[in-house]
């Protein structure tokens, strides 16, 4: 195997993992920015999205598009339910909201364990073959993940930047009381933002299911990554999540290929400490406004 | 009638509880109950450590990480021939030093960042334990950790270990109680209540929080080491994120305000996993549900119910006294 090949593989892997992290981190940071809730259960929605897709597409052989939509839709509904029953009560109460989300994570993960068992499932690849550019081959299965994630990030950006509900969300994130005074229905925006964040996590799970295997325990790692990324990129900042996610994905891929996987984790932690020391608001975050 | 009559009452309650705990080995039907009580003592220390951090207004999601560090430090040193009684304290000290360094950096940030970085730290601790297999034994962990011996008396069996664990737990409880009543404890509570107001009273709240984090994590390191010498084994799976979550659950369900809360939380939640061992997932679902329900309906924990009941009695008593005075 040539060096070029290994390098190209490493970059593609880094971008793929990075884009998944970007999707996770954006959802996480949106929920925090708007509801002020650190959602420790975020990764469990990723896991449930991946599981539903594995069951619908992998085990039951339903058409790809239908499986994707059903998996995301069902996870989004579950998210809506959780927002109604649990998270709504802790809006603005950062400490208790965070602890409650840990409880929700426990419930979701172990319900999945009871329901679907602990053994890992594999999902048949959605696409096969390779793309060959100048003698370097890229597997389509990975490129699809990257493309899918980019499409999601771009459409989310359009939604936030150019629609009424997007503008309302930005207003609520800045100051929910003033937004309410302006006639924005905060009661609609909160669940909408939460469901949107959860859907992004579910979509990330759907994208990753054919590449990795699916088990009830896969949610914690991407949650941790989302935390690390938002600390690096700045809590509440969507561009920060993109930069941080790609950075972490590439560090992970390069350090994992050339040194060792656990060194990459330690390296990421050191990056976090460095950012916290030198630029506490994150690379692209704004200084926290004192309330 | 004087409201302060409740004071001797609560001292008596504490005395009865301590006597019951001491006498447990004599009326426990079998060794399993002693094991459960020992685990309860270790849990109590961990939860008290978490409570001290919470007292200063912070939440540590990396509590298990410090217990893991303590466990490995004590296991490795004692396997080299150091006396376990000494390595227990070295373990606590190591965890405290790491916490002080980490806390000094990350506690300058707002609460949420602290939680995220402390959580990341505990994951790194697990990864290091897995990766440095030449020292830590990797995923297999360390087997055959020496038992604790006090002046030649080896605490090998459960009935021998329990008194030592109980002494450690009671000492931690007393220490926490004294800390809460000290000026530092007042500063911690004030920081949690309103950090900026406390700051403006000339108190260095950053320092207060770092100290609380250092003490709490040091206790976690000690307790992790204690557990390692009890089970004679430690592995990266001994203290994962979910262990940190279970200590948090005990603290929230019991109550975050005084020293009673952790005791109640540990008493309620330590036996639960043992009762539900047959269904692995169900136990965690119950933990999660209790956590959420408690936050919704009893946000100050089960111990606060006792306090509400007591203050109600006090109010009732004073009003009857006032009425009696007016009548006469």
Walk me through this protein's architecture.
The complex is a heterodimer of chains A (291) and B (328). Chain A has 291 residues and is mainly alpha-helical. In chain A, 73% of the residues lie in helices and 3% in strands. Chain A has one domain (3-151, 187-278). In chain A, strands 1-2 form a two-stranded antiparallel ribbon. In chain A, helix 2 (42-59) packs antiparallel against helix 3 and helix 5 (140-162) runs antiparallel to helix 8 (186-208). Chain B is mainly α and 328 residues long. Chain B has one domain (30-327): ABC transporter involved in vitamin B12 uptake, BtuC (Orthogonal Bundle), CATH 1.10.3470. In chain B, 77% of the residues lie in helices and 2% in strands. Chain B contains 15 helices and four strands. The longest helix of chain B has 27 residues, at 205-231. Chain B is globular and about 80 Å long. Chains A and B meet through helix 4, helix 9 and helix 11 of A and helix 5, helix 11 and helix 14 of B.
Can you give me a brief rundown of this structure?
With 291 residues, chain A is an all-alpha fold.
């Amino acid at each position: 195997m040539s060096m070029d090949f290994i390098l190209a593989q490493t970059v593609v892997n880094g971008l793929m993992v990075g884009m998944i992290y970007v999707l996770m981190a954006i959802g996480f940071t949106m929920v925090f920015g708007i509801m002020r809730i650190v959602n420790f259960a975020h990764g469990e929605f990723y896991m449930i999205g991946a599981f539903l897709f594995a069951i619908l597409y992998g085990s039951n052989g339903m058409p790809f598009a239908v499986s994707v939509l059903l998996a995301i839709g069902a996870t989004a509904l579950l998210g809506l339910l959780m927002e109604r029953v649990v998270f709504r009560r802790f809006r603005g109460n950062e400490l208790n909201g965070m602890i409650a989300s840990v409880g929700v994570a426990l419930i979701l993960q172990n319900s999945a364990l009871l329901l679907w068992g602990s053994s890992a499932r594999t999902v048949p690849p959605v696409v096969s073959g390779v793309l060959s550019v100048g003698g370097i081959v890229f597997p389509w299965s990975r490129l699809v993940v990257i493309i899918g994630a980019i499409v999601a990030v771009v459409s989310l950006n359009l939604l936030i930047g150019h629609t009424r509900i997007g503008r309302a969300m930005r207003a609520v994130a800045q100051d929910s009381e003033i937004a309410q005074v302006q006639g924005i229905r905060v009661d609609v925006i909160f669940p909408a933002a939460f469901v949107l964040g959860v859907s992004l996590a579910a979509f990330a799970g759907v994208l990753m299911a054919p590449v990795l295997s699916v088990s009830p325990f896969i949610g914690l790692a991407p949650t941790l990554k989302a935390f690390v990324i938002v600390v690096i990129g700045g809590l509440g900042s969507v561009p920060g999540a993109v930069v941080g996610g790609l950075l972490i994905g590439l560090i992970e891929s390069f350090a994992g290929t050339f040194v060792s996987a656990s060194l990459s984790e330690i390296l990421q932690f050191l990056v976090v400490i460095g950012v916290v020391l030198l630029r506490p608001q994150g690379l692209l975050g704004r200084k926290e406004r004192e309330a | 009638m004087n409201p302060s009559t409740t004071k001797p009452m609560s001292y008596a309650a504490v005395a009865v509880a301590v006597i019951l705990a001491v006498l447990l080995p004599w009326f426990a039907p079998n060794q399993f109950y002693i094991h459960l009580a020992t685990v309860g003592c270790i849990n109590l220390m961990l939860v008290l450590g978490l409570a001290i951090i919470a007292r200063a207004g912070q939440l540590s999601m990396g509590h298990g990480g410090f217990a893991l560090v303590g466990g490995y430090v004590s296991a490795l040193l004692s396997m080299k021939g150091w006396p376990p009684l000494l390595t227990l304290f070295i373990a606590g000290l190591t965890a405290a030093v790491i916490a002080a360094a980490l806390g000094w950096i990350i506690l300058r940030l707002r609460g949420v960042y602290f939680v995220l970085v402390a959580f990341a730290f505990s994951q790194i601790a697990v990864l290091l334990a897995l990766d440095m297999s030449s020292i830590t034994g990797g995923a297999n962990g360390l087997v055959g950790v020496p038992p604790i011996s006090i002046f030649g008396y080896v605490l090998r069996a459960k009935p021998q270990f329990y008194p030592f664990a109980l002494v450690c737990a009671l000492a931690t409880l007393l220490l926490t109680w004294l800390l809460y009543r000290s000026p530092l404890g007042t500063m911690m509570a004030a920081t949690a209540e309103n950090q900026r107001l406390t700051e403006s009273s000339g108190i260095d709240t950053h320092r207060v929080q770092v100290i609380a984090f250092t003490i709490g994590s040091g206790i976690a390191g000690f307790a992790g080491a204690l557990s390692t010498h009890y089970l004679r084994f430690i592995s990266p799976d001994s203290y994962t994120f979910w262990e940190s979550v279970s200590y948090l659950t005990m603290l929230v369900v019991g109550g975050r305000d005084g020293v009673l809360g952790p005791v109640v939380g540990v008493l309620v939640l330590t036996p639960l996993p043992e009762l539900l061992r047959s269904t692995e997932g169900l136990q965690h679902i119950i933990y999660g549900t209790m956590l959420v329900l408690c936050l919704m309906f009893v946000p100050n924990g089960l111990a606060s119910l006792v306090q509400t009941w007591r203050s109600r009695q006090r109010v009732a008593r004073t009003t009857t006294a006032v009425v009696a005075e007016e009548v006469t």
